[in-house]
């Protein structure tokens, strides 16, 4: 991404400001993060923008109350403070009450390594996967984020949008489910969100089908099965968060077929204790092109 292009966070701020102007049903609940970016729109709509400060549990509780009052709340802060810290409130104040909201995180698994482990949350999607009724979007490009946000704002369900500073060079706007990016015969490599570009680089010259999705929940079992075929398929799933998060979905999609599956993602067996850069974390977890290539080639033999 060049310096002149907008980040996902830029797109989110612009789209939310427009939505607040256009739709009186939309409300925004912040926990200090990005509050400075909404100063102007807050002056126009002080009754529908609430900054609770660094009180993330309260942020979710406020959102639940707004939803019960008929509004469409959007929650926004850094990933661990949106999913991990207020997990109980997501479970009770939204899920158990049966109301919807749009939760938009920034920082992904380790976009802010200089802030240390407190600002990293590779387990976010796995945690939300324990709660019923959540749609999960992992866009790989700012244009995909905008499309997902527009759809989410128009609904009433519970939606998680995972923003990241790691992006693919080009957007993929083919809609929900797995998109076939490249056809092959020796296996399937399925890339989620910003892992697509390194997957394409890693599999260059390999006779494999490459799939892509920016919406991992609900899981497109039909699309995966169609790509895998019926003759003992080999499937590699590459996710930009905790390794194996969607392994059970692959197993369910192919339950009646003899198959092999390999999950790649943020490693579970180690915790990196040096700050480094986001790119160094990616390499350490084997999610760069070289790491993915080594895993795929070893798996396919």
Automatic annotation (TrEMBL):
Record-annotated Transketolase-like pyrimidine-binding domain positions: 6-171
Listed InterPro entries: PDH/Transketolase, THDP-binding, Transketo_C/PFOR_II, Transketolase-like_Pyr-bd
GO MF assignments: magnesium ion binding
SMART domains: Transket_pyr
Segments forming a coiled coil: none
Protein's name in the database: Transketolase
Organism field: Saccharopolyspora montiporae
